[in-house]
Design brief:
It is globular, with a radius of gyration of 17 Å. A seven-stranded antiparallel beta sheet has the order 4-3-2-1-7-6-5. The model is unreliable at 126-137 (pLDDT under 50). The longest helix is centred in the C-terminal third of the chain and has 37 residues, at 100-136. It has helices at residues 2-5, 100-136; strands spanning 23-31, 34-43, 47-54, 57-64, 68-76, 80-87, 90-98. With 137 residues, it is an alpha+beta fold.
């Protein structure tokens, strides 16, 4: 099950989408009245996946980079590293007990590809707007 948790093999990825380093641990988010799940957070070059273990299966929840408004970390003495994913003005996903080395690799990949994706989406939006304006005139 641990291997399936880190896998995106049954997810349809974009042709040029590359999977980055994952984090595995206790994910906290609210779903059907429950708050803690064993899972993985997996960044790709296009989006972020939150994989959650549910009974005998793994559910994949994609999050587009443009939905993410912030990424914060904290280090608590009794808990260890925690990563928080913000959507809007609230923390929607948190993961506890993340090792320093894995967290650094994960964050470097996530920041790099999120920034790249947001720039590409912004450039495409500007290009589309400019193209549309040219047609109207």
């Amino acid at each position: 099950m641990h291997r399936k948790l880190k896998s995106l093999e049954d997810v349809e990825l974009h042709k040029d989408e590359v999977i980055g380093p994952e984090l595995v641990g206790t994910i906290e988010y609210e779903k059907d009245g429950e708050h803690s799940f064993y899972g993985a957070i997996i960044p790709t070059t296009h989006r972020l996946f939150v994989n959650i273990r549910e009974v005998d299966t793994v559910k994949h929840h994609p999050v587009e980079y443009k939905e993410i408004t912030g990424i914060t970390t904290e280090n608590l003495l009794m808990v260890g590293n925690i990563i928080h994913i913000w959507i809007g003005n609230e923390i929607v996903i948190s993961m506890k007990s993340v090792s320093d080395g894995k967290l650094d690799k994960f964050l470097n990949y996530l920041y790099k590809h999120r920034a790249r994706r947001l720039r590409l989406d912004s450039d495409a939006s500007i290009s589309h707007t400019q193209h549309h304006d040219q047609q109207v005139v």
